[in-house]
């Protein structure tokens, strides 16, 4: 079993192990822009169940989970040198809000399968609670249905449920040698409820409480701790509080994920070049260097859906890899598979799913409802609200404007989610199987230029 030794991760022979690979995102935690549905996962699932019926709903998602990640994916990943995969999951696979602390053992079905087939291939896995009870941040990727402030830090019930669920999961996996560890919370955003800093204190205590609960049943696996403010702010964290801890920043660069720009070149007034990439890494790993603990970059990625800018983005992406690998960091690329934004394995445009969702995808694009990396830029409502602010009130008015835009996008997305759900009405199991199979490795294409870059710069066999 792996363990932390200084700023390195070692195996039972005290050999250094580099955990490098991908996230299996939009699998056990769906993400709208990567799958093609509008809104949040719970909205989409509710719409499918409403129109397809419970039996067909369960059949479709079970088959989707199988096809999205199976032995063929693992064979491909093993072949390119991957040593570790991050497995994001939604707590709703294990627990219902109306039945807290009653765990659904069927939630382990596909996670168990993934852990097993990865272990058979010699690939480590890291379990990531991507969506937690009460939401650890206020964005769709924690399945936050109302875009509300994170509701777990100042809510004891939600904190207790999160602690208890992690203990239950750790009990289940305590003997799995090819699980590298547990990523406690994805991208927490503990906004202070008052000037006394109560939110941040709750986040620090929550990390300690979850770790203590895990250690009661599993004293051996590594625990991975995220920074506040979406894994970027480690200044809010207490010093490492026990042994066998690693820390996980996220390392998205505007030049790779935001508006199209040349590289080297300016984005939002900042000149991005190799020195800026190194500076950004300095900021991300400062806490780890200070306390001499391992740094695992849990997420970073490169979006290439702006024609004419792919080569620029790939140059920045390559520099990003070089920076991490040269420092001996571990990493998980976001992402492995999606419908064509930032993954190596891409669902084919002529697949049953892409044809099925085509009209919804067009409407999502038309109304700019996806709120991720500015994939769809703000539309006319932003301009309508772009009033001349009185001097000194720009920030206040800007926040109000952004809130209105987000609320309108959310309402439109909810309506589109219901429209997509309606399309499931009356489908046979054979038709549902065909839709789910669209995500199978055999029905996808490989982004060869992206793969070549990762092979050259990723250091996966280091």
Question: How is the topology of this model organized?
Answer:
Blueprint: E1 3-5, E2 8-10, E3 20-23, H1 32-35, H2 41-52, H3 54-68, H4 71-79, E4 84-90, E5 95-96, E6 99-103, H5 108-120, E7 124-131, H6 156-173, E8 179-183, H7 198-217, E9 222-226, H8 228-231, E10 245-248, H9 254-257, E11 265-267, E12 270-272, H10 274-291, E13 296-297, H11 310-326, E14 330-333, E15 337-338, E16 345-347, H12 352-356, H13 358-367, H14 380-385, H15 394-422, H16 429-437, E17 444-446, H17 448-457
Parallel strand pairs: 3-4, 3-14, 4-7, 7-8, 8-9, 9-10, 13-14, 15-16
Antiparallel strand pairs: 1-2, 5-6, 11-12, 16-17
Helix pairs in contact: 2-3, 2-15, 3-16, 6-7, 10-11, 11-17, 13-15
Describe the protein.
With 462 residues, this protein is an alpha/beta fold. The chain has one domain (18-457): TIM Barrel (Alpha-Beta Barrel), CATH 3.20.20.80. The chain has 17 helices and 17 strands. The strands form 5 sheets. The chain has an 8-stranded parallel beta sheet. The chain has a 3-stranded mixed beta sheet with strand order 15-16-17. Strands 1-2 form a two-stranded antiparallel sheet. Strand 7 (124-131), helix 6 (156-173) and strand 8 (179-183) form a beta-alpha-beta unit. Helix 3 runs parallel beside helix 16, helix 11 (310-326) packs parallel to helix 17 (448-457) and helix 13 runs antiparallel to helix 15. The longest helix is centred in the last third of the chain and has 29 residues, at 394-422.
């Amino acid at each position: 079993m792996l363990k932390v030794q200084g700023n390195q991760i070692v195996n039972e022979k005290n050999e250094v192990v580099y955990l490098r690979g991908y996230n299996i995102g939009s699998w056990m935690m769906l993400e709208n822009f990567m799958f093609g549905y509008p809104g949040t996962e719970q909205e989409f699932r509710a719409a499918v169940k409403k129109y397809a019926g419970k039996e067909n709903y369960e059949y479709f998602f079970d088959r989707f989970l199988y096809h999205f990640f199976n032995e063929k994916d693992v064979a491909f990943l093993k072949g390119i040198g991957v040593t570790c995969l991050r497995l994001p999951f939604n707590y709703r696979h294990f627990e219902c809000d109306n039945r807290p602390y009653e765990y659904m053992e069927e939630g382990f079905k596909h996670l168990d399968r993934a852990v097993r087939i990865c272990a058979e291939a010699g690939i480590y896995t890291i379990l990531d609670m991507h969506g937690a009870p009460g939401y650890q941040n206020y964005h769709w990727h924690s399945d936050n249905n109302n875009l509300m402030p994170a509701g777990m830090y100042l809510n004891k019930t939600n904190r207790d449920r999160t602690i208890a669920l992690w203990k239950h999961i750790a009990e289940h996996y305590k003997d799995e040698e090819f699980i590298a560890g547990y990523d406690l919370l994805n991208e927490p955003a503990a906004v202070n409820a008052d000037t006394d800093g109560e939110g941040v204190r709750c986040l620090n205590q929550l990390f300690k409480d979850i770790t203590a609960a895990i250690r009661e049943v599993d004293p051996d696996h590594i625990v991975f701790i995220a920074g506040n403010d979406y894994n970027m702010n480690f200044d809010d964290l207490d010093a490492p509080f026990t042994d066998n801890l690693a820390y996980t920043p996220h390392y998205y660069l505007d030049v790779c994920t935001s508006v199209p720009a040349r590289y080297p070149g300016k984005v939002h007034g900042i000149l991005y070049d190799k020195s800026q990439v190194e500076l950004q890494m300095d900021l991300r790993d400062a806490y780890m260097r200070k306390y001499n603990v391992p740094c695992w970059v849990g997420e970073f990625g490169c979006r290439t859906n702006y024609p004419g800018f792919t080569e620029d983005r790939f140059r920045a992406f390559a520099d990003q890899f070089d920076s991490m690998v040269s420092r001996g960091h571990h990493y998980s690329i976001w992402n492995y598979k999606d419908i064509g934004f930032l993954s190596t394995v891409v669902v084919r445009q002529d697949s049953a799913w892409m044809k099925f969702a085509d009209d919804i995808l067009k409407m999502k694009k038309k109304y700019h409802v996806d709120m991720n990396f500015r994939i769809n830029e703000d539309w006319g409502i932003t301009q309508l609200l772009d009033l001349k602010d009185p001097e000194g009130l720009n920030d206040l008015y800007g926040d109000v404007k952004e809130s209105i835009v987000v609320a309108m996008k959310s309402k439109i997305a909810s309506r589109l989610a219901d429209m997509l759900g309606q399309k499931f009405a009356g489908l046979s199991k054979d038709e549902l199987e065909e839709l789910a199979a669209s995500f199978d490795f055999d029905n996808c294409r490989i982004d060869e230029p992206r793969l070549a870059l990762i092979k050259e710069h990723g250091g996966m066999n280091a």
